[in-house]
Amino acid sequence: xxxxxxxxxxxxxLLIGAFSLLGALxxxxxxxxxxGAIQALLGEIYYTDTxxxxxxxxxxxxxxxxxxxxxxxxxxxxxxxxxxxxxxxTLLAYFELTETLPxxxxxxxxxxxxxxxxVVTYFIFxxxxxxxxxx
Length: 135
Description:
Keywords: Membrane, Transmembrane, Transmembrane helix. By secondary structure, the protein is an all-alpha fold.
């Protein structure tokens, strides 16, 4: 794969990873204001169902994205699957991201994930084309 596409892919993973980790930290920071301290004290909110699930989703998305940055440069065999899972994870975590980050930042992250899916599809089709040409 060309180096400029690989750098663009790694940059988009770095962007998604950094903002996902930031979103995870902002989720924990916004707990008292978004759910209300009185409700939390009365026990009406189950943290396992709300806060920590969102934190875990965004934190794992950030870790997978940052891991894919490394694997895409070192020629790890399954980097395209890591990239696709990171892109799908970003699209699935859209609502969690919009609750913690500005909408424009989330829109840029969605565009970056669509770029990742395009690069993965391009890479897979190039592999299939080269296999078909060589027999």
